[in-house]
Amino acid sequence: MTTHTSTNTAPVKAPRLEFAKAAPKAFRALIAFDAAAREGLDPALVELIQIRASHLNHCAYCLHMHTNDARKAGESEDRLHMVAVWREARHFFTEREQAALALTEAVTLVAGAGVPDDVYAEAAARFDERELAQVLALICTINTWNRVALSTAKPAGTDER
């Protein structure tokens, strides 16, 4: 039996700015937008969207937070491990989840090629208009949170909720 020990001794960077304290109105507005975006959506879908956007944005802080939240909500380790490669592991995800993950990628990476018509059409076929708007709002909020966490150098594992 092999024992694995961590050899990572890289220091954790100190945050650059306490965003919530420095811009409390903006922070509260973002919290409210996030809460409104989640309303009526399946909590598992919410976490999958947030995890995938955080992968794409390389946001360790949010990825750590949302994978932990997903586990607490009962998400399986198998599905969590497959989110990053969902196209190669479609059988782990429902058609709605796949459509949401594809839309998450397109919106997160919007500067590259916009949101392709086929990706949007597939999401529109899987969600009613209100749900689709909620999914889009959620994708926007996690991308904003990722940018706040990355800009302020929030270290993974320091979620204080």
What Rg, in angstroms, do the CA atoms define? 17 Å
Overall CATH class: Mainly Alpha
CATH topology: AhpD-like
Tell me, what's the shape?
Answer: globular
Approximately what portion of the residues adopt beta-strand conformation?
under 5%
Structural class designation: mainly alpha
Number of domains: 1
Question: Descriptors for this entry?
Answer:
161 residues; mainly alpha; AhpD-like; 9 helices; globular; disordered N terminus
Short recap of the structure:
By secondary structure, the chain is mainly alpha-helical. The chain is built from nine helices and no strands.
Description:
The protein has 161 residues and is mainly alpha-helical. It has a single domain (29-151), classed as AhpD-like (Up-down Bundle), CATH 1.20.1290.10. Helices cover 64% and strands 0% of the residues. The protein is built from nine helices and no strands. Helix 6 crosses helix 9. The chain is globular and about 40 Å long.
What is the topology?
Elements: H1 19-22, H2 24-38, H3 43-56, H4 60-72, H5 77-82, H6 95-108, H7 110-113, H8 117-126, H9 129-151
